[in-house]
Every structure is written in C-alpha cells, then in structure tokens.
Write a structure and sequence with these properties.
By secondary structure, the chain is mostly beta strands. The chain has helices at about 100-105, 110-120, 125-130; strands spanning about 1-10, 15-20, 25, 30-35, 45-50, 55-60, 65, 70, 75, 80-85, 90-95, 130-145, 150-155, 160, 170, 180-185, 190-195, 200, 210, 215-220, 220-229.
C-alpha cells in the first residue's frame, strides 16, 4: 500500500502528495509547499515510528497540527485520518501500489490551466495573444512575507499579479485580486498599479512607472525586489 495525503479543504483543494520518510511540508521552505498563510515555512516532517507506521511530526511550528480541533505533536497517518495545518485540511488515503501513479497525478484546475498555458506557449500562441519579450528579462524576488525566498523570472509580458491571478499569484492575505501589471517597454518594464494605495513602489503610491534595478514593490506584509537579468 502507498500512503498519500489529500487536501480536502483549502488552497489547491484536491491535490494529493505521496508520503515519504524525511519529506517536509510547509509554506515555503519545504518539500511539499502549501499556500496557507497560517502554515510555518517548514511546518512538519514525515517520519516512520517504531512500528513501521508513517507519522507526521510537528517541527515546533507556530500554529501546530490539529485533529478535531485539538493540537497535537504527531499524527499517525492511518487511512481516513483527517488533520489540519493552518487553514488547510488533509485526509490520509492509502491505495494499492499499482494505482499509486495515476492517483498522484490528480491536481487542481488552477495547476492544470497553468501547465496547459506553458505547453501552448512554444506553439506560437504567445504571438497570437500579442505578448512581447522582456528585454532584458525581469526577476522578482520575494524578500519579505509569506512567499519569502520565492523567485519569479519573467521573459515576456504583459503579466498580471494578484491574489486571483493565474499568472503571478500573490498569497499575502492583504493582496488585492488585481495588484499590478508588468508591461514590456524599450529596454525596461513598466509597472501599472491596479490597486492604488494598497500596492506601493519604493514606499510610494504611484499609478505607473518604469521599473529600475533594486526597486521594491510592497503590499500587505509582502516585499518584492526587482532586478533585470
């Protein structure tokens, strides 16, 4: 039998992850990353107990692991067990070895769409959508907030960032649905702020401006550093 955990409530509901000894789960610095602001960067780790059973061990996280509203340090990963990390609820599922590969392929509609878009881009659909190349390419580095240490390298645009964006998804609880747009310009990239006052550039409220190396985009507790490659 192969053990999985499945998200039954929370971001990426329906996603499944194979349990393996030593893997970690958390908000950013983990093998399995969940989009949950209440999860710690490295929240918990899978291990095998003295009976040879998979368990999930809390790694001194801020909010812990909960089962039926009770905080616990360890979860025995038996089939059907439901536990919570932050606002994300998981269910333990076990399947036969021969079914494990197909079972693990299930992902959410959001990820399916992202993958499909990436497949279509080499087929010339970028030109059809009137996208233009960023020259030079642009790198966004999250240096503060829930997505700390995440880097996004952008080679073409325009690109949209926001909490509901399928392009650059912002996980900050205070992120607006449409935060800012990045538009190709002559040798630089223009940022257009979609939520005035909620998104700042270098700690100032602007409507549009050409981005420079080292510029800082801020929203909520998130800080993003801009660099050209």
């Amino acid at each position: 039998m192969v053990t999985f955990i499945e998200i039954v409530e929370g971001a990426n509901e329906g996603s499944r992850f194979k349990v393996e000894e030593g893997l970690t789960i958390g908000r950013s610095r983990a093998d399995i990353v969940i989009k949950d602001p209440k999860a710690s960067s490295t929240h918990a780790q899978f291990a095998i107990d003295g009976k040879g059973q998979f368990v999930l061990m809390d790694m001194d996280s801020s909010n812990g692991i909960h089962i039926a509203g009770r905080r616990v340090k360890k979860v025995a990963l038996l089939s059907g067990v439901i536990f919570e990390i932050g606002r994300t609820q998981f269910r333990v599922v076990t399947v036969e070895e021969e079914l494990a590969l197909d079972f693990s392929r299930l992902i959410t509609w959001r990820n399916i769409l992202k993958d499909r878009l990436s497949e279509l881009q080499p087929m010339g659909l970028i030109e059809q959508a009137q996208l233009e190349r960023f020259s030079p390419a642009l790198k966004l580095t999250f240096i503060q907030g829930i997505q700390t240490d995440e880097e996004i390298i952008l080679g073409y645009g325009p690109r949209m960032a926001g909490s509901d964006s399928l392009d650059i998804e912002l996980l900050d609880e205070e992120a607006p649905k449409e935060a800012f747009e990045l538009i190709p310009g002559p040798g630089m990239v223009e940022i257009k702020i979609k939520s005035a006052g909620r998104v700042l550039l270098n700690n100032k409220s602007v409507s549009a401006e050409m981005l420079k190396d080292g510029d800082l985009i801020s929203l909520g507790s998130t800080l993003i550093k801009v660099a050209y490659l």
